[in-house]
Amino acid sequence: MTRRSCAIYATGIVCAHLLILGIALLVAQVFQTMIQERLKKEITLAKNSRVLEGWINPPPPVYMQYFFFNVTNPDEFLAGKEKPKVTQMGPYTYREYRPRENVTFLENGTKIFATNPKSFVFLRNMSVGDPEVDRVITVNIPLIAIMNELNSYSFFLRTGVSMLMGSMGIEVFMNRTVHEVLWGFKDPLLSKVHSMKPEVEEYFGLMYNKNGTHEGEFVFHTGEKNYMDYGKIDTWNGISQMNWWSSNQSNMINGTDGSVFHTFLSRKELLYIFAADLCRSIHLGYVSDTEVKGIPAFRFAPPSDVLAPPDENPSNAGFCVPAGDCLGKGVLKVSVCRQGAPIVVSFPHFYQADERYIKAIEGMNPNEEEHETYLDINPTTGVPIRACKRAQLNVILKRVSGFPKTRFLNETIFPIMYVNETATIDDDSAAQMRTLLLIVTVVSNFPVIIVGLGAILLVILIFLVCRNRQRKNEVKRIDFTEAFHSFATTKDETAYTQVSNQAEDSPENRTNQPLRNGSYIAMSPVEAQKC
């Protein structure tokens, strides 16, 4: 066997083995399963793991931006002459720190307890002004809360309280600094109530007592039993189900807190997040593929049916409290879990809300780019790499009998301010994730690489076989040509003997004899050989 034949046979054997092995691995998904199991173990929370450290102290910086709506025509609005006009003020930006504390593993590491206190530091260079100097005219929420509380009392009591507020110079709208509205001030009306009911707080602020405090005690699943449960909330403040909504489904605590999700996300699934500030769980649906710092991601966002009325989304009927008392599309009344003023939440500028709420306030300009909430999540690891949480705080203004200053008011959902909470993966973490994803891609695609090598060798094998046949044909052609030339040469050199039965007697006879066959070759006379 020639060396060329050995090479062909060796290439064929290696090619066949690679193709069979690669196709078998692809069908069995051995490497995909192996890498999935490995990732599940690596990313699942475990004691002393680097993942746990990143979960306790998230490296990406989180920024909280506050935007306020300044009322430019409060008197005209209260007189019923004009609809309210507002201008947006902001952002007033704060760096948010949110480490997890009191971290304790429970039930053999299958669950983990933690609190998540948040603290805020003002960033002047990322803000439009100084919150301690800039002033905003907005709804007097303490007044609205007291009026709402007295709505079930007698008309005479409400009238007396109204006269007291008039004597104190308390109006439906207040003029305060941004810092006061946000972080708190001593309210004269609340102070008066506090003197009669000490349990009533005399300070008011939208973020009062929320700098350095947490939203509750959480118990999370670690995913030890099932990786699909990774990060899901088991209990919040000791309860696994709330009790202030009007249906069991609405009272369920579903999903994670939004900071982590299970690995290998699908575009078809819905992601659930429990928002403690909304007192409910919401779901997010797949929107599009995107990329952040070279990392592939799926964008998930709340669909329009999240805050849809029951006639559009029957599962939202439980959020109407009391049952049947529902608001329109795009708004949610949360005063059932936030005692006091009739607070309503929505997306900024009533994005995705009923058109009547947008038209009721001059200055609303909803758009997707600035007002949509979304999460960009790497589907392989389940880690959010960019997040924008946007929510607007509103209060219901309406006519209250016994308070003359509200006599011209029609029920209006009035915007106070909205927040834009953002976070993007830092460069170091992004570089680590890109490396991890590269390894995952190479390993999980190893069977494809094997099949590819087998295909390349198959092409080489076909080339070698064809080349070998071509060479054999050439050799045969050369051998045939050489044989033909050899035969022709032999004919040239062959002398034919004169065919005759008579012997040659003498030279004379040879001379006089006629020429016979074989006497001349190529027109040259040749002496005939003797027998």
Automatic annotation (TrEMBL):
Cellular compartment(s): Membrane
One GO process term, biological-process aspect: protein targeting to lysosome
Pfam families documented for this protein: CD36
Spans traversing the lipid bilayer: 7-31, 436-466
InterPro entries: CD36_fam, LimpII
Assigned keywords, A-Z: Glycoprotein, Membrane, Receptor, Transmembrane, Transmembrane helix
GO terms of molecular function: scavenger receptor activity
Recorded GO CC terms: lysosome; membrane
Family classification: Belongs to the CD36 family.
Protein name listed in UniProt: Scavenger receptor class B, member 2a
Source organism of this protein record: Ctenopharyngodon idella
